[in-house]
Structures are given as C-alpha cells and as structure tokens.
Write a structure and sequence with these properties.
single chain, about 70 residues, mainly alpha, 2 helices, about 0% strand, membrane, transmembrane helix, Integral membrane protein
Length: about 70
C-alpha cells in the first residue's frame, strides 16, 4: 500500500488525538489514585497497560504519518 501525503496528515492527526486523550486519561487516573480512590489493583494495572499500549500505537501512527508526509 502506498501512503500519500493526505494519509500522512490523517495518521498524524489521529496520533495527536491519541496523545491528547490519553494524556487526559492519565491525569485523571493519577488524580484518582492520589486521592485514594478505592479500586482493586487490577483496575490500576489494566488502565496503566491501556495507556502504555495506546501511546505506543500513537507513536507508530505518528511515525507512519511523518514518513508519508516526507514523501514527494
């Protein structure tokens, strides 16, 4: 599959959206934990794994998008 510039912009946009939403999610999760919200350990672990995986997906999408944008 050949990525064009328009695909690059889409991928970069989705990556930025992913970073912003998961930054807010991380902040909210951190605040809940700091305030002593009573949740099982599995809750904190599962949500932390979600954050790491989605940031990794964002990095992959951003790299693909930048690569597509650099093509002429």
């Amino acid at each position: 599959m050949k990525l064009e510039r328009r695909h690059g912009w889409l991928l970069v946009g989705v990556a930025v959206w992913n970073f912003l939403t998961y930054a807010m999610f991380t902040r909210n999760l951190w605040s809940a934990h700091a305030e002593g919200e009573d949740r099982p350990t599995g809750y904190w672990v599962a949500h932390s794994v979600l954050i790491v995986v989605n940031v990794a997906i964002g990095v992959v999408l951003a790299r693909l998008g930048v690569k597509a944008l650099r093509r002429r």
